[in-house]
Amino acid sequence: MVKRTTDGGWIPWTVLVEDSDRTERITLCRSCEFFATSVQSCSKCFCIMPIKTMWADAECPEGKWAAIAYGVTDSDNS
Description:
Strand order of the largest sheet: 1-2
Helix content: 10-25%
Distance between the termini: 16 Å
Oligomer: single chain
Radius of gyration: 14 Å
Largest sheet: 2 strands, antiparallel
Number of helices: 2
C-alpha cells in the first residue's frame, strides 16, 4: 500500500513487505547482538523491530538487511 501526501508526494514507509521478507528480517534481528529481546527493539537504531521490519524502505543500521523496492521506479511516483 502506498499513500499520497496532499502535495502529491509519496509516503514510502507505508509500503509494506511480504510476510516472507518480514520473517527473514525479524529472524536476522533476533540473532543480532544489538537486539533487546525484552522490548523487541534494536539498541543501535532504537526502533521497535516487529514494526520496522514491516516497512519496505527500512534498513538495518548494521547492514544485515536492506530496503526493498518491489519494482517501483521513478516513473511510478509521478
